[in-house]
Specification:
CATH class of the largest domain: Alpha Beta
Strand content: 15-25%
CATH superfamily of the largest domain: ANL, N-terminal domain
Largest sheet: 8 strands, mixed
Bound molecules: adenosine-5'-monophosphate-propyl ester
CATH architecture of the largest domain: 3-Layer(aba) Sandwich
Number of domains: 2
């Protein structure tokens, strides 16, 4: 057995011993009495009886050894601001925010919804919640008021933290009006809103509800707010993600298990060391931002770069396709994390940009969120000359499920494969309908994880244990296993290859979206009778959404101008309600949609036709002419 195989085997055969050792990587106020309580599967309770705090582990723990060292490096190529906060400074900022939240009545277990651009105040807010035991729910700033309203209603936050505006490509994107509209739409109303005024867009404050953080912090300048010691199993946060239904799921995470999982992954997978700099180009609105912009690097004692801006614009707001590499050189970044889609954007830039900077500090680039195609992997690998590490995981897992654990053993990578199952994960491939385990190499099935899931993995769906069990654990007949809803194969060497989703989730530029949410938005349009949204392969974004609409007035859209107008209206509606990411790249008008005889939409057949593939078995299709019509549209 190789060193890694041995490591993995030990984590599976002796989870208590293995994770008790990993638990030493963080500080506990009270050490755990029991490592794993798996008495009520599929629920797994980690480090039972232990008390700890994420903010303590990310910030306070480092004060004695590296208080003056960089903790948070903020770079905004949108506003030209570049500012470093030491651990001491971060500590003070977090306490100020914590004191403001407490003054607004926030206590342990209360939810705080964070709808913020990529600014330091967003990280202060997350850490402040963790500090006082409040549950943060960060909603991606690119989401519009409809998406935000659903999340406010589900999370029922006491306070919402937001800002006047974000900025994209030097264009101001106001947040406050979207938040006001979302609160108006939501049946639940938060008691207070805490706002950062960046001076980018005018804000109208609602008397009695809205507070400026600068005003509040003034009275808490030297606030001392001790960390609340939380049970390991207490909730740290929820983060919403899309699934098969239109209703987003609040993925709920614990405190102690998450802290240990992140500390262990920083050591065994990312190989990041205290005092070094970590640079993840993700957004705090996504799980990668939670785990590997904010908590993971800080827990490991690393400085973390919080980057607001495009990969192609410099700090002077002029075009600069080398900005990321400039930052790697300047801050001596050792570990970098991004997404394939971002690399595909950079591929269009002058390749000489990769050679212009001193990148000798960099040890590895991690890419995740969507399949990493070989040309992209080769291009960046040749350009950087460091290992490119594909890693496969989900919002639900919180940290990599399949990758290469470089910190344990530098196993070779294979192009197209994220690697092998990580320690703690029992990953299997099952037949989708029989549930039988597929053990022969290269047999395609559903990638599943056996119980118990490791520390850091989602505890449940917020407020809905039944949905958690039903959605994730009962999808393969006859077996209580966690479905990733991804297709996969394992080759003869044990390397996994991920072959796309089994459900209606699509991946646009590394962002996970549910086609059902987009369909619900479109079907609200007065002229829409029926709609199907599918994800179609796109060279740059991985996938884009494409909508097929049956209009109410069937003949109205034979006129090209009318069709164009309706397409425009539908696109705008989705962008306004859900956000620009979800906007379909095209809306096509048809007279019928392919369905089974029982009326189930055949989205996969539509998708296959759109991508020029064989739609497969069509014996179940009710009216094959509908699919034929779509094919003609696509070819035309
Ligand atoms: O389909 C898989 C794809 O993204 C999904 C999870 O997306 P999200 O919840 O946003 O979490 C992203 C965390 C990195 C997965 O179910 N996916 C993620 N990473 C990869 C991937 N597909 C192929 N290769 C990957 N490395």
């Amino acid at each position: 057995m190789s060193r890694y195989e041995d490591f993995h085997a030990r984590s599976i055969e002796d989870p208590d011993g293995f994770w008790a050792e990993q638990a030493q990587l963080i500080d506990w106020q009270t050490p755990p009495k029991q490592i794993l309580d798996a008495s009520n599967p599929p629920f797994a309770n980690w480090f039972v009886g232990g008390t700890t705090n994420l903010c303590h582990n990310a910030v306070d723990r480092h004060l004695a050894t590296r208080g003056d060292q960089a903790a948070l490096i903020f770079v905004s190529t949108e506003t030209g601001v570049e500012k470093t906060f030491s651990f001491n400074e971060l500590h003070a900022e977090v306490q100020r925010t914590a004191a403001s939240l407490m003054a607004l009545g926030v206590g342990k277990g209360d939810r705080v919804l964070i709808y913020m651009p990529m600014i330091p105040e967003a990280a202060f807010a997350m850490l402040a919640c963790a500090r006082i035991g409040a549950v943060h729910c960060v909603v991606f700033g690119g989401f519009a008021s409809g998406s935000l309203a659903t999340r406010i209603e589900d999370a029922e936050p006491k306070v919402v933290i937001s800002a006047d505006a974000g900025s994209r490509g030097s264009k101001v994107v106001p947040y406050k009006p979207l938040l006001d509209e979302a609160i108006r739409l939501s049946k639940y109303k938060p008691a207070a809103v805490l706002l950062t005024d960046r001076g980018l867009a005018p804000m109208e404050l609602v008397a009695g509800r809205d507070h400026l953080d600068s005003d509040m912090a003034a009275s808490h300048r030297d606030a001392v707010v001790p960390c609340a010691w939380l049970a390991s199993t207490d909730i740290s946060y929820t983060i919403y993600t899309s699934g098969t239904t239109g209703k987003p799921k609040g993925v709920q995470r614990d405190t102690g298990g998450y802290a240990v999982a992140l500390a262990a992954s920083m050591k065994h997978i990312f190989d990041g060391r205290a005092g070094e700099t970590y640079f993840s180009t993700s957004d705090i609105g996504w799980v990668v931002g939670h785990s590997y912009i904010v908590y993971g690097p800080l827990i490991a004692g690393m400085a973390t770069i919080l980057y607001e801006g495009l990969p192609t614009q410099g700090i002077d707001q002029q075009p600069d396709g080398g900005i990321w590499w400039r930052l790697v050189e300047k801050y001596k970044v050792t570990v970098m994390f991004s997404a394939p889609t971002a690399v595909r954007v950079l591929k269009k830039q002058d390749p000489a940009l990769l050679k212009r900077y001193d990148l000798s500090s960099l040890r590895a680039l991690f890419l995740a969120g969507e399949p990493l195609d070989e040309p992209t992997a080769r291009w960046i690998s040749d350009g950087l000359g460091v290992p490119i590490i594909d890693n496969y995981w989900q919002t639900e897992s919180g940290w990599p499920i399949i990758t290469i654990a470089n910190g344990v053993e530098a196993k070779p990578s294979k192009f197209g494969s994220p690697g092998v199952p990580m320690y703690g994960y029992k990953v299997k491939i099952l037949h989708e309908s029989t549930g039988e385990e597929l053990t022969a190499p290269n047999e395609k099935g559903v990638v599943v994880i056996e119980s118990p899931t490791p520390p850091g993995f989602m505890q449940t769906i917020w407020k809905d244990d039944a949905r958690f069990v039903q959605t994730y654990w009962k999808s393969v007949p006859g077996k209580l296993v966690y479905s990733t809803f991804d297709w996969g194969i394992r080759d003869a060497d044990g390397y996994f290859f991920i072959l796309g989703r089994t459900d209606d989730v699509i991946n646009v530029a590394g962002h996970r979206l549910g086609t059902r949410e987009i369909e619900e938005s479109i079907s609200g349009h007065a002229n829409v009778a029926e709609v199907a949204v599918v994800g179609v392969a796109d060279a740059l974004k991985g996938q884009v959404a494409m909508a097929f609409v049956v209009p109410k007035a069937g003949d109205a859209v034979t006129d090209a101008d009318v069709a164009l107008k309706l397409e425009g209206e539908i696109m705008k509606r989705v962008a306004d309600q859900l956000g620009a990411l979800a906007r379909p790249s095209r809306v096509r008008f048809v007279t019928g949609l392919p369905k089974t005889r029982s009326g189930k939409l055949l989205r996969r057949a539509i998708q296959a036709v759109c991508e020029g593939r064989d739609p497969g078995d069509l014996t179940t299709i009710d009216d094959p002419a509908t699919l034929q019509k779509i094919k003609q549209l696509i070819v035309a």
